[in-house]
Amino acid sequence: MTMGPPRPVPAGVLGLAPRPAGRRRAPERTGVLAALAALALAACTARGQVTPVDPVATARKQPATTLPALRRLVADGAPGAASLVTRDGRFAASHFTTAGVADLRSGRRMGEPDHFRAGSLTKTLVATVVLQLVAEGGLSLHDTAAAHLPEDIPVTGPGDRGDLRRVTVRQLLDHTSGLFNYTDDSRLSRQLEGKGFGAHRYDSHTPAELLRIALSHPPVAAPGTRYSYSNTNYLVLGLIIRAVTGHSYATEIRRRIIVPARLDHTSFPGTDPVLPTPHGRAYSAVGARRVDATSLDPSRAGAAGEMVTTLGDLNRFYSALLGGKLLAPRQMAQLRSDKHTGGVYGLGLFATELPCGVTVWGHTGDINGSFAQTAGSADGRHLVSYRVNTDALAHPVHGTDVLTAEFCARPGT
């Protein structure tokens, strides 16, 4: 399981692709977008209380802008692909489009209500809770990670190889901590994917165990010196949420985000290997074979990527977040700020400039058998979520094509 820099570098089963195959956002756009966001979010409270998203909309048929791009993803080798487009915040009028199949045996097509594993899209929800805690005074972005970890959690590796006493909360959020990515450990990666997946798909892992694996490796860089994507960062953030609140990150996400934002089909399964109904199948490539990866123990991902959700819930969450319903203006500006990563990644969110010059905000995620992305306009009123039922895109630019087809479409098309 590997994750790395922006595409086209291949991602692994918890992968993320900051700006997949899109052009790098021009630095001068950042300040303008942040200023617009701050104005749009002025009604937020310091605690980041949620105003539920209004589900009422006029039911009107939208054109299937994304269908050709979804068909390309299937032609590339994905069994099935699907997208959900929401315009003008009108959720009841969202347009679902699909190509290929959800199940290779039955030929069943993907459905809008289908549940799937969202991988690193989990990270945006974890980051949102952390920033809510910052707004409440529970912690600071400048605090060290070690300051908020219980005594039973390791903070250094052998010979001080990895040292959480030198890593800040901000560096965890924007992947500048330098911590080794635990899913890159050679022994663990052989168990989590490829030929070892079948024998180890139901193995359970604790955050402390996975953190020890990460800290047994030298850091890839000194804290704060450069961007290097690492699942370990969000593993630690999940532990910090537990230490600060007394509850698991999953409990806090349910209380602070899932319930008030009405994400009725989003869950954090812990060690439960079964997807909720309805769902299709998930497929991973193992050599020349295609393996059914639908059922697995998601504790391998934890706070870095265990979430199960639907396309509709992804659109609702990112609409609430980008629309200023979850964070106060100060924390929203911090979420979008990518100055410490050279314009690559904010604090659990990243921007992508599409070929037509439009900038969208969101995240990607993949885990065994599933890849997904959500992107939205700066105000959260125009959103696209899409997914495929395999864990890697053969041609990442074709994923960006799904976004381009909608966000760059001419008015009226």
What is the topological layout?
Layout: H1 27-40, H2 67-75, E1 80-86, E2 95-100, E3 116-117, H3 122-135, H4 169-173, H5 186-192, H6 197-200, H7 207-215, H8 231-245, H9 249-258, E4 283-286, E5 289-292, E6 308-309, H10 311-322, H11 329-336, E7 350-353, E8 359-367, E9 370-376, E10 383-388, H12 396-407
Antiparallel strand pairs: 1-2, 1-10, 3-6, 4-5, 7-8, 8-9, 9-10
Helix pairs in contact: 1-11, 2-12, 3-8, 3-11, 7-8
Describe the structure.
This protein has helices at residues 27-40, 67-75, 122-135, 169-173, 186-192, 197-200, 207-215, 231-245, 249-258, 311-322, 329-336, 396-407; strands at 80-86, 95-100, 116-117, 283-286, 289-292, 308-309, 350-353, 359-367, 370-376, 383-388. Helix 1 runs antiparallel to helix 11 (329-336), helix 2 packs antiparallel against helix 12 (396-407) and helix 7 packs across helix 8 (231-245). The protein has 413 residues and is α+β, with helices and mostly antiparallel strands. The chain has 12 helices and 10 strands. The strands form 3 sheets. The chain has a 6-stranded antiparallel sheet with strand order 2-1-10-9-8-7, with helices on both faces. It has a two-stranded antiparallel sheet with strand order 3-6. Helix content is 29%, strand content 12%. The protein is globular and about 55 Å long.
Order of helices and strands: HHEEEHHHHHHHEEEHHEEEEH
Estimate the global geometry from the Cα principal axes.
globular
Total helical elements: 12
Span between N and C termini?
A: 40 Å
Spans where pLDDT lies below 50 across 5 or more residues: 1-13, 15-60
Q: Given the helix and strand composition, which structural class is it?
A: alpha+beta
Strand content: 5-15%
Q: State the helicity in percent bands.
A: 25-40%
Strand order of the largest sheet: 2-1-10-9-8-7
Number of strands: 10
Largest sheet: 6 strands, antiparallel
Average pLDDT number: 87
| Structural Rg | 20 Å
